[in-house]
């Protein structure tokens, strides 16, 4: 099957998404932040969390699951911590503001952490960890999600894909950026396979009986209706390949994101027909000079990352990569050639824009 795609300018894509968001009631600033986070996923080569999800944001804002310009309430504020109740706000703008607050506190105190409760989908976790990295800090970001993951030896969803992001700066290298789900894949990746009409690889998910599932549409429906089946934890089924480690990491994320600030967790977090469920987030930032000279740290980071990249590849492999390297390379390619979008995604975007009076997205020739 031939998969057609188009390329568009990053700034055009951000402008288009921002205009759609403003048409749905977001302020100019919130619309711009939401668009920037969404487009960053496509730019970094993570289309499962990119503009293909615009429709779910539109559905969430139209249904009221996501509240445009909701009143943001600070529940707790100390020199090293902050807890925010988003009151159903769109997850991206409130998360950008929360991470900015955490960064400012860390710059003053050495380290700081924050939680956001009653929020919504916040895009790629790596965006927020990288905000700290760009301020010469080590950054951490996590979020829980609607229950989509099946625990070791289980067959019913009990926790989310619960991603973890960690970013550390370097000097000549772009930095180390780990951005990973604690399940084998995210739901967004299964949605991509559904859009492409492809069977799921064995080991990604199980059906309602707990046996391997290959039908992307069926597993998406089963997870939504909670009839059994879901995505496997990082590591896979059982104990042989240490799936219990991914399962444990997912629960750790739920503790930091939700239990710590009194938010819903596990199966209590559920999606609606139009949008992702209300979720909660955790952010952290660490000032490097509270441990050692930042310049020396960045030099050692350069050496570590170069050593990893230059280590001998396995037979038949192109090279060894470190976390974030492929994404930085994809970003550079997007700067040269434009951001790639599946034709079906492009068509869906234009249809969404047309319904709201936003001109079609220009395509690069």
The residue ranges in which pLDDT falls below 50 over 5 or more consecutive positions are: none
Percentage of residues assigned to helices = 40-55%
Compute the separation of the termini in Å. 23 Å
CATH topology: Ribosomal Protein S8, Chain: A, domain 1
Main sheet makeup: 7 strands, mixed
Mean pLDDT over the full residue set: 95
Structure description:
By secondary structure, the protein is of the alpha+beta class. It has a single domain, classed as 2-Layer Sandwich (Ribosomal Protein S8, Chain: A, domain 1). The chain is 40% helix and 16% strand. It has eleven helices and eleven strands. The strands form three sheets. Strands 2-3-4-10-5-6-7 form a seven-stranded mixed sheet, with helices on both faces. A two-stranded antiparallel ribbon has the order 1-11. A two-stranded antiparallel ribbon has the order 8-9. Helix 4 (91-109) links the parallel strand 3 and strand 4. Helix 1 packs across helix 2 (28-43) and helix 2 packs across helix 4 (91-109). The longest helix is centred in the first third of the chain and has 19 residues, at 91-109. 48% of the residues are buried. The model has no long low-confidence stretch (mean pLDDT 95).
